[in-house]
Design goal:
two-stranded antiparallel sheet; CdaR-like_regulators; Arc Repressor Mutant, subunit A; Putative transcriptional regulator; alpha+beta; PucR_C-HTH_sf; globular; 5-stranded mixed sheet
Length: 397
């Protein structure tokens, strides 16, 4: 029945003098707003370094721009600056990690979303893919151009490794740069961190220079690499270093550069280097999230962890296993440290500055809350798997 008091407000859309409900925001615009809010929040985090923060601010501009003209020049200048300062890999890795977390939050319903959640998640996934493509293309393009300036004293080997990581043909790279390109490679993704003594008297040079020189000395110059002061990618020709010697090589270059180095290894034909490098960095991400000890990890050592991080029904089941520990962050930290310490309670206690009896008490509490005992191997498998899944959730403890 018509209500005579039901009058449209001034400026509101009305049909036959009756107000029309405002249109629901389009999923893409809702997703754009959510992504922008989460990126802005992350950019304000004091733990984010300046280059990564600048990249996040640029990503926000790209997200809201009406056309490429609005951001192209600024993005190109920033990408060139990062390439010149050997920051490209770190910036792109940070952006990918942040956007992955943003998408996880939206998909898990951690953000306020109007009805039509599924459509918003799909729209968010498309926007994130477009954002990654736009920014990564600009950054990697600038990085490639920086490497390709061989006439200005740049090493053609840098240009060659950049081309290999883009998936270009090995035969074309051989012809273009006059370099020997092997048929098979061991691809290393690595993270480097300064040691407590790195500021004392030692080899002169920047961290990147020290790492490059150490690698060249120990491989006879056969290895190719793209690296920054915090990590990168190394391509080892299959015949250069014996499989059992790769771990020693990683330790040696870290020692020579006075840095802690953690690396992951994937073996591949030259034609598949781009995909192998991506997989190696995914494995490195797993190692870092699980806080595993420094060293070298092969795909066979992380196959279970890698598979558990892929989307599937097992993720939800395993994630629920640790739900009872959500209000007990100290128990989660103890479980993570105990597994990383090879189930050695004394090492766990030393790492966490706890008495071994306290470690035992916490492990018993974990068993009481979850029903799984860390000292029983069948239960341990479930706990470790659940911890892997938990480590890839947003807002993990």
């Amino acid at each position: 029945m018509f209500d005579p008091t039901d009058r449209p407000t001034p400026g509101a859309l009305a049909v036959a003098d009756r107000p029309v409900p405002p249109a629901r925001p389009q999923p893409r615009e809702t997703a754009r707003a959510l992504i922008g809010q989460l990126l802005t929040r992350r950019a304000a985090d004091t733990e984010v370094d300046e280059a990564a923060r600048a990249c996040l601010h640029l990503a926000i501009e790209v997200l809201h721009a009406r056309s490429a003209h609005d951001y192209a020049e600024q993005l190109a200048e920033a990408a060139q600056r990062w390439a010149r300062d050997d920051l490209s890999l770190g910036v792109v890795h940070s952006l990918h990690a942040t956007l992955r977390d943003v998408l996880s939050r939206i998909g898990a319903g951690d953000t306020p979303v109007a009805p039509g959640h599924y459509e918003v998640v799909v729209a968010a996934a498309k926007l994130v893919a477009e954002l990654i493509d736009t920014v990564s293309t600009a950054v990697m393009g600038a990085c490639s151009r920086q490497f390709d300036r061989t006439g200005d004293g740049h090493d053609p080997r840098d240009a060659a490794v950049s081309a290999l990581l883009r998936g270009e043909s090995a035969s074309e790279i051989r012809t273009r740069y006059g370099l020997a390109i092997a048929d098979d490679y061991r691809v290393l993704a690595f993270a480097a961190q300064s040691t407590a003594h790195s500021g004392e008297d030692g080899p002169a040079g920047s961290p990147v220079t020290l790492l490059r020189d150490a690698l060249a000395d120990r491989t006879g110059g056969a290895a190719l690499s793209a690296m920054s002061a915090t990590g990168g990618t190394i391509l080892l020709p299959d015949a250069t270093v014996a499989p059992r010697s790769v771990e020693h090589l990683v330790a040696e270059i870290g020692r020579a550069a006075r840095m802690f180095v953690t690396a992951t290894l994937v073996e591949t034909p030259v034609a598949d280097i781009a995909g192998a490098a991506e997989r190696a960095h995914e494995l490195l991400d797993i190692v870092q999230r699980l806080e595993l000890p420094r060293g070298l990890y092969g795909f066979d050592e992380l196959a279970l962890e890698y598979q558990l991080t892929r989307p599937g029904p097992a993720q939800a089941h395993l994630s629920a296993l640790l739900a009872p520990l959500a209000d007990h962050p100290e128990l989660l930290r103890t479980l993570r440290c105990h597994i990383a310490s090879d189930l050695h309670r004394r090492r766990t206690g030393e790492a966490m500055h706890l008495h071994p009896n306290t470690v035992d008490y916490r492990l018993r509490r974990i068993a009481e809350l979850t029903g799984f005992h860390a000292h029983r191997y069948p239960d341990l498998w479930y706990l470790r798997s659940a911890l892997v899944v938990h480590s890839f959730r947003p807002n993990r403890t």
